[in-house]
TrEMBL record:
Positions of the DUF1468 domain: 6-145
Swiss-Prot/TrEMBL keywords: Membrane, Transmembrane, Transmembrane helix
TM segment ranges: 38-60, 81-110, 122-145
InterPro entries: DUF1468 (IPR009936)
Protein name: Tripartite tricarboxylate transporter TctB family protein
Length: 146
């Protein structure tokens, strides 16, 4: 089984669990405003659909490419992936201890550093993105973030 298929299957399982878990979120209002579970369910459905497409495309490939020795580019990519997983683990550990805007901004900045982005434009974008996400969740989706 190809690595892409394994990752897609694991992602589908995780998204299915998140989709079901989103049913426990507060429901919508009587005047038609959707509840807090709408966004995560829509996101999970999109991710599941994309992974199903990836599995189908992987199965349709006729020529299976041979994997050669690991290049420096692959090693660098693997190192970045491990750092991103560590940053995400730190985000999960610090969740609830640090205010969302600060935590999300720092997380995005660390991801930008790992991906070697231009920090002059990335840092303001990270801060604005964190504030925007906070505002949308608090005021539009009625999900309280601390």
């Amino acid at each position: 089984m190809a690595g892409e298929m394994i990752i897609s299957i694991v992602t589908i399982i995780l998204c299915a669990a998140a989709y079901v878990n989103a049913f426990t979120f507060p429901g919508g209002t009587s005047d038609g405003v959707p509840g807090a579970g709408v966004f995560p369910q829509a996101l999970c459905a999109i991710i599941i659909a994309l992974n199903v497409i990836l599995i189908i495309l992987e199965m349709m490939k006729k020529d299976k490419k041979q994997r050669g020795p690991m290049t420096e580019e692959h090693k660098d990519g693997l190192k970045r992936m491990v750092m991103m997983v560590a940053a995400t683990a730190a985000l999960v550990i610090l969740w609830g201890m640090v205010h969302f805007i600060i935590l999300c901004s720092l997380y995005l900045i660390v991801i930008g550093l790992i991906l070697r982005q231009n920090m002059k434009t990335f840092i303001p974008g990270a801060i604005v993105s964190a504030v925007l996400v906070f505002f949308i969740f608090q005021n539009v989706l009625n999900v309280m973030l601390s």
